Amino acid sequence: MASLKLVCALVMCMMVSAQMAYALDCKEVINDLSPCEDYLFGSADKPSSSCCSGVKSLNNAASTKALRQEACNCMKSFAESYPSKINVNNAVSLAKKCEVKLPSTISSSTNCASIK
Hints:
The protein is mainly alpha-helical. It is 61% helix and 0% strand. Helix 2 packs antiparallel against helix 4 and helix 2 crosses helix 5. The longest helix has 19 residues. The N terminus is likely disordered.
């Protein structure tokens, strides 16, 4: 019985530490935003429903200051990778058109350290 309690305690500790160590991966951020490329690059007039689903998913995943800053840095890197392709007006309006309040826009000039 004591060994069962020890196993349960270890499993609980692993679950708590796994949640605390969660970090947004840039690959995850890019996957969430990839359906938005047509809109971000100016070849679509409005974001698709799959784009908005990805924006909402990213917003939900970035639930702490640290995660929001990580997501911001990933979006910034994405913007830096395509400086001449991104339609700045579309990037700025993406969150509003998807009815999501994001702490930053997709821009190479965003100061991610200021995200709260």
